[in-house]
């Protein structure tokens, strides 16, 4: 089976964006390590995002040091898919940006 690399199937930047489930994210940064476009940042969860989580997800996040990934540079995403493959929690989906929707 061929190995998928960032050079395959790239889209122009700005067509797709990674959507991160903060309920699933454990903040260890595998996505940050593999992204060739520096889309991600791992940091303490924002207060409003934390407040929106259910009790079990809040407890899980405390265990993981309150750290989650944010796609702070989402405009640079070229939809290579490396982050989706690398995420051990299946927390990342690629979504077509709404401006491109039919
Ligand atoms: S790889 Fe997945 S679980 Fe890990 S920080 Fe990124 S989004 Fe979160
Ligand atoms: S698909 Fe993921 S790894 Fe690839 S450029 Fe976009 S955010 Fe980075």
Name the descriptors:
single chain, about 100 residues, alpha+beta, two-stranded antiparallel ribbon, two-stranded antiparallel sheet, 4 helices, 4 strands, disordered N terminus, binds iron/sulfur cluster
Question: Would you mind describing this structure in some detail?
Answer:
The structure is a single chain. By secondary structure, the protein is an alpha+beta fold. Helix content is 24%, strand content 18%. The chain has 4 helices and 4 strands; from the N terminus they run βαβααβαβ. The protein has helices at 30-34, 47-51, 55-63, 82-86; strands at residues 16-20, 41-44, 67-70, 92-96. The strands form 2 sheets. A two-stranded antiparallel ribbon has the order 1-4. Strands 2-3 form a two-stranded antiparallel sheet. It is elongated and about 40 Å long. The structure holds iron/sulfur cluster (2 copies). The site of one iron/sulfur cluster has 15 residues, from helix 1.
In helices, the fraction of residues equals 10-25%
| DSSP summary: helix tally | 4
Low-confidence segments, ≥5 residues, pLDDT <50? 1-7
Average pLDDT confidence is 90
Molecular shape: elongated
Q: Which ions, cofactors or small ligands are bound in this entry?
A: iron/sulfur cluster
SSE pattern = EHEHHEHE
Record field, number of beta strands: 4
- Major beta sheet, specifics? 2 strands, antiparallel
The secondary-structure class comes to alpha+beta
Widest sheet: strand ordering: 1-4
Radius of gyration: 14 Å
Distance between the termini: 34 Å
Percent of residues in beta strands: 15-25%
Q: Regarding quaternary structure, how should these chains be classified?
A: single chain
């Amino acid at each position: 089976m061929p190995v998928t690399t960032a050079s395959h199937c790239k889209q122009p930047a700005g067509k797709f964006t990674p959507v991160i489930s903060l309920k699933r994210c454990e903040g260890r940064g595998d996505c940050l390590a593999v992204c060739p476009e520096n889309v991600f940042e791992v940091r303490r969860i924002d207060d409003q995002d934390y407040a929106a989580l259910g009790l079990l997800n809040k407890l899980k996040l405390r265990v993981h040091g309150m750290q989650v990934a944010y796609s702070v540079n989402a405009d640079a995403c070229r939809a290579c898919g490396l982050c989706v493959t690398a995420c051990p929690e299946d927390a990342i989906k690629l979504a077509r940006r709404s401006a491109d929707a039919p």
